[in-house]
Amino acid sequence: MADQANAFYKIIHAGNPYLVPRRLQDIAGETFGIRCERPLVLFTDPQEAVEKSLWFYARNILPLIGEPNNLAVTAFAAQRYGVDAIVGQLPLVTTFLSRLGGEYDLQRIASITLIGRDFDIRDVASLLGEGRAVRLVLSHPVIGSFAASCAERLAAGELAFHPDPAAELFVAGGTLAVSKRRTAPGTGRRVGTGLAVRRIKNTCACQAPVSFTIIASPERDQP
Description:
Radius of gyration: 17 Å
Order of helices and strands: EEHEHEHEHEHEEHEEEEEE
Number of helices: 6
Structural class: alpha/beta
């Protein structure tokens, strides 16, 4: 734990690992999840799993943290817990759902939130149209979430994102950079995302000031 109350040091595994302080109040302000009763948090990186679990703790919701290296045990625990939501990363979540479907009614899972640094509509197509809410959250390990998928467009099979209200987006060198107005100590700097994006016309009912889509990214499926 950090010296300040309700904080921990998150290990960022990028090149040489380094620490970033994350306060509970900052994590609570992210868009990592939605209201539910029995969420499962499933990431390959335990640091990411702890951070997303704290988002639920801040809302007095007790999450189940899955074991990515033993999906059989995770499926057993999810079944006993009666999970109604999943927050995790691709392709781990789709692999897990294939395993869980043999022993659990997947209709009980009302929402799936996928968090990553890049998305492709082909990777999430199998999760759509099942009567559940699916959200894609663009996030950087240091500064947290900075955009979320448009629910209306995603339901129509289109990948479009609206920026987080606390995020400021900049295009530098052809790729997207982000800073957060509400962020943990030491992480207020502008951070490159590696995403090439294109602004698109707002045609949804979200009334968001900005919509953009991803053109390409050198990195994929990272939380």
